[in-house]
Structure formats: C-alpha cells, structure tokens
Amino acid sequence: MNKELPPGLALQKVDERIMTLNVGPQHPGSGHMRIIVQIDGDFIVACDPDPGYVHRGEEKMAEYRNYITNIPHLERPVIHDSCNILYPYVLGVEELLGIEVPERAKYIRVIASELNRCVYTMYWLAIYGIFLGHSTMFMWPAGDRELLIDLLEKMTGARVTHAHFVPGGVRNDLPPNFEDVCLRQVNYFEKRIKEYAAIFYDNPILISRTANTGVLSREDAIRLGTTGSVLRASGVDYDLRKKEPYDVYDELDFQTNVLKEGDSYARSKIPWLDMMESCRIIRHALQKMPKSGSVRVKLKPNPKGGDASVYKRVESGRGSLGCYIVSDKKPEPYRVKLSVGSFRNLIALPYLLKGEKLGNMPSVYWSLNYWPVEADR
Amino acid sequence: MSVIAPNFKFSEFVKSILDNVFWILLIFALIGLPAVQVILFYVEMPVIDGELLTPFLALTWLADPSRTLPILKAFMNTDLFRIAAFPGFGFAALIAAGTIFIERKMLAKLQLRVGPFYCGKVEGILQLMGDGLKLISKEIIIPAKADKPIFWAAPIIFVATAAAFVALIPVAPGWVVADVDVGLLAVFAIIGFFPIITILSAWSSNSKFPFIGGIRALHQMVSFEIPLILSLLGVVILTGTLNLSEIVASQSNFPWIIFLPIGAIIFFITILAELERIPFDLPEAESEIVAGWLTEFSGMIYGLVQLGTYLKLYAFAALFVVLFLGGWTGPMIWPPFPEEIITDGIVMGPITAKIPGLPVFSQEMLNGVVWFVIKTMGVIFFILLPRGVFPRIRIDMLLSLGWYKLIGLAFVNIFIALGLLYAGVLGPGGIL
Description:
Number of helices of chain B: 17
Oligomer: heterodimer
Helix content of chain A: 40-55%
CATH class of chain A: Mainly Alpha
Helix content of chain B: 55-70%
Radius of gyration of chain A: 21 Å
Distance between the termini of chain A: 31 Å
CATH superfamily of chain A: Cytochrome-c3 Hydrogenase, chain B
Structural class of chain B: mainly alpha
Number of domains of chain A: 1
Strand order of the largest sheet of chain B: 1-2
Number of domains of chain B: 1
Strand content of chain A: 5-15%
Number of strands of chain B: 4
Radius of gyration of chain B: 27 Å
Order of helices and strands of chain B: HEEHHHHHHHHHHHHHHEEHH
Largest sheet of chain B: 2 strands, antiparallel
Order of helices and strands of chain A: EEEHHHHHEEHHHHHHEEEHHHH
Shape of chain A: globular
C-alpha cells in the first residue's frame, strides 16, 4: 500500500544539523494543534502548522438541523466569543426569511457582541501573557474577564454559551436596571485594562522581546489574506464595523486602531486598544438605545427559505467572520459555510516564523490572534 | 446487608489481628532484642561530663532535665548535628520550605488570587507537605532510551551539590559546617558544578526538549559565572581574605553594599540567572520547550530537583547577605538570658530546680541567627519578586547582557574597590 503521507509526516532526508520538533498537540505552548518546527541551532528553518485535531463537522451538522436548532451548536467553535460567531448566521437567515429586526434588538445585539469581544480578547491576552512567561498577565485578565461574564450572564442567562441571538432579534429582553450595572462595570473594566500598560505593554523586557519579531509587511498581510487585528497591525485600515456596517454600527461613534509596525508587539497591542473602543461603543449604544419596545419578531414554526443563497460577514474578535448559507426551500439549510478569521491568520504563520529564533515562536504564534478550535470548526 | 464488606466476620477479624500481634512479638523477641544488645555491646559510648554513657544512664537523662542539657550540648558540638541540623541541611531545608510557601502566597496576593488555602487550616500552611506526599506516591517514569544510571544520579548529585554549597555559609559567629580559608573559592568551585549536572541530566534523558533546555542552561550558567566571580572580587580586594566568616566579621561597622553597590547589583542579577528564576528562566521556558531540562523528571526525582533548586536559592541569598549585607551583624535585639535562673534556679512551688548547662545558646549567637534570617528572607523576597512583574527574556538578549554589560560593570566595580583601597579609605590600614 503506497500511501502518500502529508508533507510534515513523510520521512525525508535532512541535514544532520536540523532537528525536527513536534510542538503539540501535547505541548503547553501549542493549543489544540501541532506545529512541526525544524530548527538549526536556535533558528527556525521551516515551520508547518498542522491544525485539525478538534474538527467537529459543524458545517455538516448544520445541514441536518433547521434554522433555529442550528443556533446552539454553531457557537461551539468559539464558546467565549459565541455572540460574534452567531452574528453572521443570524444576519444571513434574517435576509433569507425577509425579517425586519426591531431597533432595540439591534442595540442589544451590538452591546452583547462588544461585551463578548472583550471577553474573548481578555482570554486571548491571558494566554499571550503566560506564553511570554508573565504569570501576572495570565491571572489579571482571567480575573477581570469575570466582570463582563457576569454582565452577559445577567443579560443572557449563561456564562459562556449564550445562544442569545436568534433570527428576528434576541432571545430575551434586558433585565431591569441593566443599563446602570452595565455602565458601572464597563467603566471599571476600562480603568482596569488601562492598568495593563504599566505591567505589560510598557514593560521594557516585553518590548525588546516582541518588537521587530515576526514582521508582516503591509503588502504581505494583504497578499496572505490575513484579517482583523493582524491586518490592522500591519497598517491596513480595515474594520468591517466601519467598512460594511451591520445593524447599528454606522450610528455609533468609534474609531479603528491601526499601527504600522506589523511586528508581534503591534499585533498584541491592537486587541488591547480595541477593547477600549469596545467600551466606548457600549457606552454610546447604552445612551442611544430605545428605552422600551419589542426585541424579537416571532417566526413561524419551521421557517423555510427561498431558493437563494446569502453571504454575511461581521468583525469578530479575530477578524472578519463570514457565513455563507444556501437554502433550497426546505426547513434545513442546504449548506452552511463558515469563513473564520483564525484560519486565515494561521496561513501567515510559516512565513513569519521562518528565520526567527525558537524563543520567538510562542509570541509570534499567539500574536496572530488565532483560536485553534475555530480554525478546525 | 452490608454492601461494602459482604463477607465480613468479626471472629476472623479478631483472629487476623491476633495473628499479626503474634508475629510482631515473635520477630521482635527473636531478632530485635538480640540485635539491640549486640549493637550496645560493640558500640563505643561517649563520655559526657566525666561520665561514661551507658544505656541506663541515657534513660535516666531522658527523665531528668538537669542531666538532659549536657547531653544536648555535647550532641550539638558534634559534626553530625552541624551537618544535618543547624547551620547545615535541616536549617536550609526549613528556610527553603518557608521560601516556597512565601513565594506562593506572595505571588497569589500580587495576582489577585488567594493561593494555597485549605491544606492545614491556617492559610494552607501544610500545602508543601501535601505536595511532597503526592510526589513521593507518584510513579517514577524513566524514558525507554534514557541513560539510566546518569538519569537517576543527576537529581541526587544536584541536591548533594546544593547541600555542599549550604555547608559553606556561616550563619552565626562560629556556627558554620566548613570554616575553610578558601571559602569563596570553594563557592566558585561548587557553582561550577551546576551546569555539568544540568547538561548531564538533560542529555541522559535522550529527549529533544530537555536537550534544548540543557544547552540553554549551559549557556546561561557559563556566561553568568564570569560576571558573578568578577563582581565578588571587589569584596575580596577590600577584605583581603577569602574566608567567609572573616568577611562577615570585617563588616561589623558597615556592610559592603554601601561602598560596592554596583557589585551588589551585578551579583543579584547573576543570582537570578544562576537560579533560573524569571526573567532568566529560559531553561524551563514552558511555552517553548515544555519544562526544559526537567521535562522527563517525574515523581520524587522531580521533587529532589525542586528541593535542590530551593536549597540553592537559600545558599545564594545567604551568600549575598554574607558578602554585601554584613551577615549576622546587627544591633542586639535578643533579650539577655535571665541571670536569676542560673543563680537561683527555677522556683516551681515547693520545688526549686537548678539546671546546670544553661543557657544553651549564647545571646550573641541567637541575635546573629535572627539578623541573618531576617536579611536572608529579605533577599529571597527580592529574588522572588520579578516572577510577578517580568516576562521571560530571550537567549540572545541574555547572552549580550551577560557578556557585554555585566562584565563591563564588574570591572567598574573592581576599579572602585581598588580606588578605595589605594586612597587609604578602606582595607588594611584604612581610615574607616
């Protein structure tokens, strides 16, 4: 049996100086994936990321469930960013079924989505801290994240897997007195994340370790198809909330953060700056939100789409997140395809790691704003 | 109807206990008692206060406090006590255990956590004991292709070398295991062993990540040994001796850190690197090379390496205290031993007990130990603190720090010491 092995597994004759390291899946610095790294001394000569260890077939599962029962399992790839990963699906289904969403529901969606982006980014930041050997930066974001998780629990009833967005609005209205609690906690949260500058982002050791490592130029960032914070750190002003505003983002006041350096430090700084913008968006949305009104349009049981297809995308914590839905007049979608930012950012990893030192691997890898489970879907 | 022990019979239970008691008594009577008698017959008993120690006398001394103290004092003058208990291994291990507890609680407070809490009722004070029991009960797994003798020997040699380092530290006047005239040279010799042990253990495990970690440890320790030795030359120039006890005695007026702050800072940074503490923990960098050269260790082998690491931490902190902070010197804060107990004895109602041999420790010794422990814990605190504040640095940054910056600064420090010496300020015949 002459089976073709994937390139990383095939036995190949290599130079005696070169050592092959299997970083993962049983490795504290890999996540649910493997990076096959070939090193010459302390320098990486080749790198082959090997995702797919947590593939769950979410897209295939979506073909056997109707439009409403698809919601809880489609948020599983990123359970701590579950509002954002459901957002394009819900927008697409609304367009297929031709539903107009109430104004208050749109604002609630924006608030939930921004809170969830912060929850995700804090988790990502915690892991970035521990990857650089900074244990305080692991504990602080993991603790401050609880503030927003409590808010989301008040709002949706669950700490992480919310399943809050449904076609036609959101599942429940806000609890009474939510606006005051939200405003207070978000203000405190913003004060806390500003303190991270002193211990982490202005730390001279951190800057000298991550600045000028894994530099991704503006042209390469566009050519490799990266999105989100990786693209913005390379100097491309690209944020779907500004470029293709969905729901009420065009009525809200915020700006996109762009840095020109394109190195690990800039890539790690952009999500942190984005969190402050998220706090701004939440405060503005709370101010502009209609104080009362319906939050959900009731659908018929087992709604059927027309003979059509729709592609919607939103800006998630990891970049542009698209959802392509094909409908064939049945209660179940014919095809659901998720286009996730994690996988698109991972493509840049082999280009960035080539020629870097082994010590830079964790910082470059995790600065790509990558979530292994989302890439595998 | 019992579900737990369906075939339980009380008579069999009693019979099994009686069986066990019978065999224990039989073995004790046939083997234990003759063995004790044989040992007592051959062993030469010591003479204490002019009396030959017989088993009868030893038992009497246990019951009579007036006779317990002389035997205790005699025992404390033996080498065994010094090596095993007070200035040696036992004292160092106690401080190491305290260090681990303080590290965990302090880091937890810094990171808005609680830290060990449940084990031992009071703030998790028995957590270390629980961890130790867990490590002892774990299976020791050895990689199939490891070089087994070296793999087994490396942790034991590591602890032994760290203990040898501890033996050179003077804790109080006269209280040192090995009071040698080449004390500082012996310290340098012992520090030179650690890279060899590290690379041996890393290489013998025949695994990639430990190997990379071992190579990193080798680079780090070798390149930081040179600034370490150079930074201590200033102290040697000013004191004119290598004996650690004499170096402490020379600081009775002022510690050397006042005149040689650059040397103290260089020495502190090199301590961090030699101990593989954050920010210099590259040999154990978790996100890159799993646990570095400790990856393949498991069970009590890992526990031994940790014990050796913390013994080393205590020894380096104590060395900093001895060389730069004046060791045991300090104002007298220990209260003097009450004279009336020696002259009048202890009055307990109708009985007045006169106990010969008091006080057991002199006031100067206790005061010295208190100051030494306070200073050592302070230095240990500053060694632990960067773990909560700094990320890990990279190997090229580490090497350039060691070879360019620290060695250059160490020469500046030596010139300062020479200047102070030739200006006649300090040193033999100096004005201070």
